[in-house]
Amino acid sequence: MDNKGxxxxxxxxxxxxxxxxxxxxDRITGLYLYNVVExxxxxxxxxxxxxxxxxxxxxxxxPGDNSVESYLKSVVDExxxxxxxxxxxxxxxxxxxxxxxxxxxxxKIDPLVRDDYIEDVNINGPNKPVYVWHxxxxxxxxxxxxxxxxxxxxxxxxxxxxxxxxxxxYPILEGLLPExxxxxxxxxxxxxxxxxxxIRKFRTxxxxxxDLITDGVIRAEALATLWFMLENGISMVIIGPTGAGxxxxxxxxxxxxxxxxxxxxxxxxxxxxxxxxxxxPLVVRESETPxxxxxxxxxxxxxxxxxxxxxxxxxxxxxxxxYVFFQGLASGHTxxxxxxxxxxxAAVRRLLSKPMSVPPALIPLAxxxxxxxxxxxxxxxxxxxxxxxxxxGVMKSGLRVNTLFRWSRDKDELVRLGDSALIADLxxxxxxxxxxxxxxLRRRTEIVTAMAKYGFRSPxxxxxxxxxxxxxxxxxxRTVISGELP
Length: 486
Known about the structure:
Helix content is about 35%, strand content about 25%. It is α/β, with parallel strands linked by helices.
């Protein structure tokens, strides 16, 4: 790194002792840059790698995933034998890294795929810097550039792993990679500057409610309120712009649902991951093959109504499936979903307009609207729940809204503004006494606060606590408050 041209902002390792990252600020432009640091090969290691690649090109195909590494090691051994070279352990490890990166990995962009801080990888054509969306620093230009051949090779690899053909006849590819990465790809036919690739990453281990509390995304009191509402059949819509964390929050809230509940989820691509035994995940299928039916979100929402879910979850409302979703709420199902919108007003306008076309009278059946967004907190970008509101009515004169919590920029905290009209209705209808409500909200607030304090943040720990709480709330409360898992 040129100390005169760039200032080091941050550094960390992706793979200990092998792959590192330098976040630097260009002193001239002020831009933050993401620089991948990979192993430097000695002359001998470079020659062995080149010969190993030649041998791989001559071979017909790689074996199954379980034996790829040992097979590549044998290829390296053969390359060393032919060159009459013996590498040190470090040199051998470096050669194996590049071979694994370029065969079972994703080539030059493989470190980006491995970096847990990166949420999106954006390739905008050959011979252009690859960009990433970093959870700490947002958009960053990387020091990775793919040649035309490298990008074409990546396109072929992605197509094979998704299991869909991409060609001039079908120049757009959407799908899920084996690692759970969502990919969007377009060829030159639709992108004149060359193939474009966007890879969106999702964590194997879901972010939990305790992660969200620890990171300041939501306050324990607000989360306890949402937990109580979910148990009592109150439906919710999470709203926010792209990359705000809508699906992450949705998945985290689903962990709070009673473990024996029947939950049906409907998504374009699998992102939701929950441990419930009666979870039924449904996924949209787009067909390009004659006589093979496409299955839309609209179809799946209709199907879900017939299999009697306790909770009907749609990953994101985009089209006509919204109408059926709200009909499901009207028939007594509890629903959760997300919608791309910058505010409650904008979300309601989208729901009222085509292609959603939800009648105004049905929209308040989605009782709670949760707004989440990215905000600047000090010198970093963070996600925050901005607003939790009850939608009580949609009228020509405007929306009737009861705001429960709102984020304060000065305090960087979700501040309580009022009491819940929906919970008051539960009390008035005799479903639960007010003193029981007060006890539950207090106890659940203290439980999630203690979980954050003692680091009970893994998916297994969170589900274990909620599962036991439904069976024996008082005993679970005492156990967790004392710093132990039930």
